[in-house]
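User: I've been trying to design a sequence by hand for this structure and keep getting stuck. Would you show me what you'd pick, starting by listing the structure so we're on the same page?

Assistant: Good idea, let's start from the same input. This is the structure you sent:
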């Protein structure tokens, strides 16, 4: 209701009282102002009890909370999860569901909005086409994240990240140098750590991965060829090609670096292994259907075994 509308109704109520004082019958007042007689009696009673202040609007808020509304303890629990993890309504609902508590996403969203714990999402100017990969290892996206410097610590550290586009399994390492030498060492770590064979890696055109624009073979490309891995390069100024690893860097900021501040950058090197394990084995992914990356890899293996068994059975039937 706008301000002018509220003022109109308040003035109408005042005119009702003036007509009542002039001994105009209630039925005539109701007909004149197009309201019911109980409405006229209600405003007359309010005026006689409270005076002119009784004609003002009152709050429509219920005196008691709705019986299905969340309890105070549950609201505090939701706020604590949000503050500790930064998760949105969907992930918070999964955490509560794991504890046997059923709360809708809309109810959780209202709690976060009421206490100003949720930010308005950014409006994307353009929509990018999603690329789905159905085989692990055929598109392992590799990128480097520049870590923030710490006051008093001039040394800079870099997070080398490899993300499988199919299962979202990641390999994380932190080095104190940005070079092709550490990129090759990281590639060996990726091949050793991933539970499947790496067929192709995709990188940007950073100097640690390529020697462009000179178009000469780089050390990273040579290492890929030695390991039998295809090296794919994104076109310049197009980070969307490595969208999955870029999005995972945002998750690192929100759930690891901001929530675990350190005084020495070398502490990141000790903690990154635990974060990698939690990301791969404990943290669920909405893009994977609310399962962990390792569960996605196990599901792929089971589906592949069923397919092979079916092909073997069909082959036996055809022979007979």
């Amino acid at each position: 209701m706008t301000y002018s509308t509220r003022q109109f109704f308040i003035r109408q109520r005042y005119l009702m009282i003036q007509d009542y004082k002039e001994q105009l019958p209630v039925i005539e007042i109701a007909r004149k102002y197009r309201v019911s007689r109980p409405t006229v009696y209600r405003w007359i009673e309010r005026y006689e009890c409270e005076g002119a202040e009784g004609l003002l609007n009152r709050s429509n808020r219920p005196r008691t909370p709705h019986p299905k509304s969340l309890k105070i303890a549950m609201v505090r629990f939701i706020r604590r999860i949000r503050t500790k993890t930064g998760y949105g309504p969907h992930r918070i609902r999964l955490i509560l569901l794991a504890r046997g508590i059923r709360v809708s996403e809309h109810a959780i969203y209202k709690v976060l909005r009421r206490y100003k714990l949720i930010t308005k999402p950014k409006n994307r100017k353009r929509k990018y086409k999603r690329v789905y990969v159905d085989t692990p290892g055929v598109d392992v996206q590799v990128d480097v994240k520049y870590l923030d410097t710490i006051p008093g610590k001039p040394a800079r550290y870099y997070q080398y990240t490899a993300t499988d586009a199919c299962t979202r399994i990641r390999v994380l390492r932190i080095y104190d140098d940005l070079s092709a030498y550490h990129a090759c060492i990281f590639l060996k770590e990726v091949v050793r750590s991933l539970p499947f064979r790496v067929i192709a890696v995709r990188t940007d055109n950073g100097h640690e991965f390529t020697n462009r624009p000179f178009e000469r073979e780089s050390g990273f490309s040579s290492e890929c060829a030695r390991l039998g891995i295809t090296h794919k390069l994104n076109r310049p100024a197009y980070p969307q090609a490595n969208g999955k690893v870029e999005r995972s860097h945002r998750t690192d900021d929100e759930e690891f670096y901001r929530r675990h501040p350190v005084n020495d950058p070398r502490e990141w090197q000790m903690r990154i292994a635990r974060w990698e394990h939690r990301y791969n084995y404990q943290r669920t992914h909405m893009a994977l259907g609310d399962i962990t990356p390792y569960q996605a890899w196990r599901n792929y293996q089971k589906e592949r075994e069923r397919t092979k068994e079916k092909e073997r059975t069909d082959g036996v039937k055809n022979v007979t």
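That's my pick for every position. To get oriented when you compare it with your attempt: The first helix runs from residue 3 to 21. Strands lie at 140-146, 158-164, 170-175, 200-203, 230-233.
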